[in-house]
Design a protein that fits this description.
single chain, about 210 residues, mainly beta, Porin, 2 helices, about 15% helix
Length: about 210
């Protein structure tokens, strides 16, 4: 019996020693999970050649003799647009843009006059806020009027200039939409009856462009 008692004490001591040794062993840890790379969003660039359509509304007044003879013209516009943008690292965007359109901006009083065709060639300076770009624009403008006075008619081309501002927004990587306002001054030219007239016009336009 005494031997069994000693054997139990020895077994208990061995069990305690084994537990203490196991507690001192380094704990097993799971291998670190590799971080999944997150794709950074690609910033939009306005650089490239583009083309599209524009349309809107024109209003204003004829100048000189045209004030009393023709009155104040109003009407719609529809045209095509083409241009090129270059975006700098500073987010400023330099561009050139041209458009050619048909118009039905007309007025009548004693006589009548209708602005039938318009064209502009302008520089643009914008600032890219990712997919939104406010811009200023200015350059050449011209227009052709059909004048009727005293039973005589004439078609006259007017040179001039334009300035304005707008905002363009990228809808996709290729498509963008814009809204802009232009002030157009057309120089005075002669019309039937011996008078002269030009025009001061405001053009409110929207446009849809595709960047190639």
């Amino acid at each position: 019996m005494k031997h069994f008692y000693k054997l139990g004490l020895a077994a208990s001591a061995l069990l305690l020693a084994t537990s203490a040794f196991a507690a001192d062993l380094p704990k097993k840890t799971n291998a670190p999970v590799a971080a999944v790379p997150v794709a950074m969003p690609r910033s939009y660039s306005w650089t490239g050649v583009y083309g599209g359509l524009n349309g809107g509304y024109g209003f204003g007044n004829y100048t000189e003799d045209g004030k009393d003879t023709f009155g104040n013209p109003t009407g719609g516009l529809l045209g095509v647009t083409g241009g090129y943008n270059y975006q700098m690292a500073s987010r400023w965007v330099l561009g050139v843009e041209a458009d050619l359109g048909m118009a039905n901006v007309k007025a009548s009083n004693v006589g009548s006059s209708e602005l039938r065709y318009t064209n502009t060639f302008r520089g643009r300076l914008g600032y890219a806020v990712d997919r939104t770009m406010p811009y200023l624009t200015a350059g050449y403008a011209g227009g052709s009027t059909h004048d009727d006075n005293g039973g005589s008619t004439s078609d006259t081309y007017h040179n001039g200039w334009t300035a304005g501002a707008g905002v363009e927004m990228a809808l996709t990587d290729n498509w963008s939409a814009k809204v802009e306002g232009l002030y157009v001054h057309l120089n005075s030219e002669g019309f039937p009856g011996g008078g002269t007239s030009g025009a001061d016009l405001g053009l409110a336009r929207i446009g849809l462009n595709y960047r190639f």
